[in-house]
Each structure stands twice: as structure tokens, then as C-alpha cells.
Design goal:
Blueprint (H helix, E strand, L loop, with lengths): L4 H29 L3 E7 L1 H18 L3 E7 L2 H10 L4 E5 L7 E16 L9 E3 L7 E4 L5 H13 L4 E5 L3 H9 L5 E4 L2 H4 L6 E7 L4 E9 L6 H13 L1 H5 L2 E2 L3
Parallel strand pairs: 1-2, 1-3, 5-9, 6-7
Antiparallel strand pairs: 3-10, 4-8, 4-9, 4-10, 4-11
Length: about 250
């Protein structure tokens, strides 16, 4: 079956209506027999890779009558899902203030320049942002949050960057760095996932520092279910900042 043009426009709204109905059924189930129903959690790929296992294990242990859906996608896609009601809660990178969302900053991860220790060109312990123009860079394409932070700083500094390769996934980027194709800018915690940083050297970026901010997000126009509130508390107990190698933001 092929959708008409009008049907294609209406489809996401219909899906949002169905998700709202599902959320209402979850609320009714909670009121009658404890925590049950279904929850959809949105996670960017980097966060999903780190916390999906611990989160699902803890969720199934604590909420045996409920089901969980992990919706993986870049932050702009997850924001759209939150606004349409398809996602009940999400972790986002660098989300701007939005009246349709309730945003709660969770942690910050510092971005740094990374290269391979076998490169002829060794990295200093610190480097100014405008000097990144001297390195062949392997970066993710827009709208990746790391690339967005770099682009914002680049425009303010008025410098040109030598981007030789664009790759969507951070693990593929580190593989290319390991093959000495070029250098990259990555979150500090990424090295914890990459052989504990063996074979890599890093330089802290200054003037300005580049930060990825992780925020918890829920839709402002829809009430969060009890299962949603308890899942947020579960995320707190998992200590997401520690899993990401990030600095927790004081509340």
C-alpha cells in the first residue's frame, strides 16, 4: 500500500495519537495493579552503546510487568519524537531551550583532539582551537552533536578546518585514527571504550573549550507516567555520567 501525499503528512501525527493512547493505557494499568505498560526511551547512538545493556537489565529486574523500547537516533530526531509524543523520555546532546520540552542538564563531556602515538606529528598536552586548522581531521557529518559544537566554535573563530573524511560513527572514526589516516575531535569518555586509550594520544582543546552537554528531556505537553518517573529515577541510580566518563552537573 502506498500513502498519498496527504497521508504521508498525517502519518506521524497518527503515530503520535496511538502513542498517547498507549501512554494513557499505561497510566490506567499503573493505577490498578502497580507499574506496568510500555515506555519508549530515546538515546543518541553513543549513549545507547554505553547504557542500553545496564538500563535494560535494571529495568527488567525492577519492572517485570512492564516493557521498554529503546529508540536510537541523533538528538534532532529524538526531539521530534518527544514533541510528537512517540517518545516519553530521552537523553539528548546540546538541546537548546524549547517550550515544548522539559530539559534537565545531566552532565558535560569535554571534547579533545586525538591522534595515534605512531604519528610523526606528536600532540602537545593542550592546543588552541584555531590550531586545529593545521591537522587533517576525520569528523562526523552534521547534525552530529560533536560536529555541531566544532562548527559553532569554527564560525566564531573564523578559521577553516581541513576535513579529509566524514564518518557517522565514533568507533569508525577511531579506527581511521588508529590507521593514521588523520586526527579527530572526540569526547574524552570515548577513549574509555577504545582499548582504554592505548595507542592514542590526546590534546585538551582550549580557547575555547568544547563541551557536549547531556540533558534529560520529556515532553512539556504530556504528563509523564509513573513508570516514566520511576525510569528517570532508575537512570539516576545507573550514574550515567560515570558510564560516559563525563562530569556531572550539580542540580
Amino acid at each position: 500500500m502506498t500513502l498519498t501525499a496527504a497521508g504521508a503528512v498525517f502519518l506521524p501525527h497518527a503515530q503520535a495519537i496511538l502513542e498517547s493512547v498507549s501512554r494513557g493505557e499505561t497510566a490506567l494499568a499503573e493505577s490498578s495493579k502497580g507499574l506496568a505498560g510500555r515506555i519508549v526511551i530515546g538515546l543518541p547512538p553513543r549513549i545507547a552503546r554505553v547504557i542500553t545493556g545496564p538500563l535494560v537489565e535494571a529495568f527488567r529486574k525492577q519492572f517485570s510487568q512492564a516493557s521498554i523500547v529503546i529508540a536510537e537516533g541523533l538528538s534532532p530526531i529524538l526531539v521530534e519524537g518527544l514533541k510528537l509524543g512517540r517518545i516519553e523520555l530521552a537523553l539528548l546532546f546540546n538541546a537548546p531551550n524549547d517550550p515544548q520540552l522539559v530539559l534537565d542538564p545531566l552532565c558535560e563531556e569535554e571534547l579533545m583532539l586525538v591522534g595515534h602515538t605512531a604519528n610523526r606529528r606528536r600532540l602537545p598536552s593542550q592546543i588552541k582551537f584555531d590550531r586545529l586548522s593545521q591537522f587533517p581531521l576525520i569528523l562526523p557529518p552534521m547534525p552530529n552533536s560533536v560536529r555541531a559544537s566544532i562548527e559553532t566554535a569554527r564560525q566564531r573563530a573564523g578559521v577553516h578546518l581541513d576535513i579529509v573524511v566524514e564518518v557517522n560513527t565514533m568507533h569508525a572514526i577511531l579506527d581511521l585514527v588508529e590507521r593514521r589516516v588523520g586526527f579527530s575531535v572526540i569526547p574524552r569518555g570515548m577513549l574509555l571504550e577504545a582499548k582504554n586509550g592505548k595507542g592514542f594520544e590526546v590534546a585538551d582543546i582550549r580557547s575555547p573549550r568544547l563541551l557536549n552537554t547531556v540533558l534529560r528531556a520529556t515532553p512539556a505537553r504530556l504528563p509523564i507516567t509513573k513508570l516514566g518517573r520511576e525510569t528517570l529515577a532508575l537512570l539516576d541510580r545507573l550514574r550515567v555520567p560515570n558510564l560516559l566518563g563525563a562530569r556531572q552537573i550539580a542540580r
